[in-house]
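Minutes, project check-in
Item: structure for the 251-residue chain
Input as provided by the requester:
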Amino acid sequence: MNFETIELIIEDHIATLSLSREESKNALNLKMCLELTQACRLLNDNDQVHVVKINARGNVFCAGADLKERPHMNEQEIVARRVAGFTAYASIEALQMPVICVVQGAAFGSGCEIAAASDWIIASLQAKFKYPEVGWGTVGATQRLPRIVGRRMAKELLFTSRTFDAQEALELGLVNHIYELADLEPQADTLAKHISQCNPLTVRLTKKCIDQGLETTREGAMAVELLAIQENLQKTDWKAAISKFSGNNKP
């Protein structure tokens, strides 16, 4: 778990994945793309990880793509770099366990994509968000954003490249909760600890049902949930869980 651009710590069933290029405002470069992908593969193979928390070192969550890489790239290299970024975002999205993104400061471009690939976002009151792709003369962030905030608002945010604050992100549904900066990490820790104490298979199946169900018909979604219910009954001690919940110690 030795990385150059990120840090990965696993403790008490909670994995903390931290963007760690503070000197570059955690800008996403090729190395970070590859390491994020690698870290996600390690996490998906680790049954002891029940929840993942993504945060960042310093005052900035992620300033976006590291544009210092681009001037010396040709078109093929640019495309390859963009694919590496897409792969990193998809790897976060494909994590089987819940992913909480903790945005303490500015999240621009790639920072927004990393956050949007998580299951939900909590942010500080100081957090800022921006999708600068169109202003930079490139195309990006066209898929997750409209699925979260809707088609019309996504077009506004992308076409104008305007910066919006945590309160507006909350109102748009991009962010789930906002807190004072001093309370942000404690709140994230409380959330992660609560989830880590739930049955990990039940949590993973629930996430799978939501993600797969939204991509199919209502009938198809019901089939996905029924299969998950059956797997959960077969592989967990659900009777003990219900007995504990009801206050009855007898199975």
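Outcome recorded: The mean pLDDT is 94.
No further action items on this chain.
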